[in-house]
Amino acid sequence: MTLRNLWRWLRTATGDDAYERYVEHRAKKHPGEPLLTRAAFYEESQRRKWGGVSRCC
Amino acid sequence: MLKNITGGIFAVVGAIALTIIAVHRNEPVNALWIVTAAVCAYLLGYRFYAAWIAARVLSVDSSRATPAERHDNGRDFVPTHRWIVFGHHFAAIAGPGPLVGPTLAAQFGYLPGTLWIIAGAVLGGCVQDMTILLLSTRRDGRSLGQMARDELGPLGGFAALIGTLLIMIILIAVLGLVVVNAMKHSPWATSTVFATVPIAILVGFYLRRWRPGRVLEASLLGVALVLFAVISGGWIDGNPVLRAAFDFPPVPLAAFVIVYGWLAAILPVWLLLAPRDYLSTFLKLGTVAALAIAIVLMHPQIRMPALTAFVDGTGPLFGGKVFPFVFITIACGAVSGFHALVASGTTPKIIATEGDVRLVGYGSMALESLVAVMAIIAATLLDPGVYFAINTGAGIVGAAPEAAVHTITGWGFPVTVEQMQHLAGEMGESTLFARTGGAPSLAVGMASIFGSTFGRGLLSLWYHFAIMFEAVFILTTLDAGTRVGRFMLQDFLGHIWKPMGRTSWYPSVLITSALVVAGWGYFLYIGVIDPNGGVNILWPLFGIANQMLAAIALCVATGIIIKSGKARYALVTLVPLAWLALITSTAAWQKLTSADPRLGFFAAANDLAAKLSSGVLPPDKAAVAPQLIFNQRLDAWLTLFFLAVVWFVILDMARVSIRYLRGLPVSGSSEAPYQVSRSTIP
Q1: Which pLDDT tens digit goes with each residue over B53-103?
Q2: Which of A47, B368, B497, B585 to pair with A33, CA 20 to 30 A apart?
Q3: In this predicted complex, what is the ipTM?
Q4: pTM for the whole thing?
Q5: How far from the centroid of its chain's Cα atoms is residue A3's Cα?
Q6: Total beta-carbon pairs less than 8 A apart between chain A and chain B
Q7: Measured between alpha carbons, how far is B179 from B437 in angstroms, rounded to an integer?
Q8: Which of B214, B277, B503 is the closest to A55 by Cβ?
Q9: Which CATH number fits domain B2-185+248-661: 1.20.1740.10, 3.20.20.70, 3.90.1150.10, 3.40.1280.10?
């Protein structure tokens, strides 16, 4: 595994590149439709993440 | 062919390691043998048992599109690489549970706990997690409660919901108690844990306002600040004025945790919960990895005997014989019902293909089980006398150090006041006597492992790092759990009065959060004023509840397997279910009917009431006695309720299964229809 791959893996694993992937997804599947801003996307994803059981004992 | 050869090697090495653990009596065994036996067992279980279950029992089909592929929306449904899903799932299931339970169960010796952690995970916990994950993936990521309702009936679903809510309350209370006991009269620990709150808020602003979504840089900043807080805690400890400012008895600390829990539940998630979780996840993964490396490098001798005399039920940490209580005390790390909620939550929505459930479901749980094995090693490498001196409440061995060491030495575990003072000095604490709850003794164990591997001069830093590490993710579980409890309560109250069910309606948020916090706050408060440390009552209650939730999850799995026409394979979930039903029912029965006040709830209440009325209690104990009596009775009724719920679900599952086997109509499968995965289209 190259260092570059490792860095990409780390970014995806932590959610650091979640917004880039969202933008990519929208461009591919729904081109031209409005996008959430980076801050709004972050807030929405956190609200969704903590809306259910996402941490255990 | 190659896989079978490596499998054979693991089998031989694992068998040698287990034999060495089993025959080493009256002389210390090396911790590395325990780690080797555990790792070989997980690899064998993963390679053969899990693969067989996936192929035969669950008919895992990689050509079948998962919800992530069918609903791919770039947000919650996202097909994700299996190692990333593994990381997410492991981070979600691995909490403080596998650290605390094994530490407490070490009172029986290292052998019962170790064997149960390994066997329970390979045959029970991992199977449960993988099965529920696949079943939920096939059902668009439906929750355990929804699956229970769809596949068994409305009452089964309701039982799962109530069970979850009550477990959450007990769990948060006992975890809060662990943190309070670690912070009481420890200015270093208290100031460090307090500092994590403003640090989390700072990281929250960073992620929301200044550099939205830049998780890596924000977490790096936060972790650096938290490590600095550990170091500066030492400076605060050295300054007489600041030291006094952070020196709290347990009751105000409990009040702090309660108020904090309420605020964390009503504030927006981005401000406190989300950033704290990033910090705790990084610390957790980093510390677990460092601990594994350090144990391999240090390969310490286990000093606790394989079995202690306390297997007969006279143990000082909690009452009850090794059967069933070792199986109750160690829930997380062997079988944890709570995992079924995570496996039927976020994870099934990001699984890219069904073939990944073995790695994600079975594999993550095997890794969590290894964390529990490391916790039992950290507890049992301590001098047994030291272990008991730290973990036994003043109500059992007396408040005076001389009395405590006298009693503990009398049990056959020699320890001296000087030894304890020296150790406390090394760890930067004024005393380590009666620091019940498991966190301090684990921290002493971790500090000695880290200290001997990475530098002995920093023992007090390692100790407070370990305390902070446990506290940070206990508080994350506390925040997240309070919120989940609130959602459940809102959902429930919404059926009675519509507006209460609206999750964004602020009055409802304030009231339901306060109710959930009041629920666990009550148990936390009682635990704090209990002279025996409180953990001895709350942890078994939590264990019973968590194992009962596992029984509910395994009921759902068994029912679905039988209804899918594979009754002959249902033993895979039926055997762990039968075992859990046996141990939880036995434990609950003993907690209800035992005449021993250290074991039975009613016996304890009656014993204390008799002492109170005859006036033999000293005034400070008499003042809290009525509350303790009430609490013991409440715990008894709660246990009875858990018992009724779990047997209700078992009978409901049996009813549905028997109807199916006799050819009578049952509710249809809620599986989503087969749709071919794009990845298999050439």
Answers
A1: 999 999 999 999 999 999 998 888 999 999 999 999 999 998 889 999 999
A2: A47
A3: 0.94
A4: 0.94
A5: 21
A6: 118
A7: 8
A8: B277
A9: 1.20.1740.10
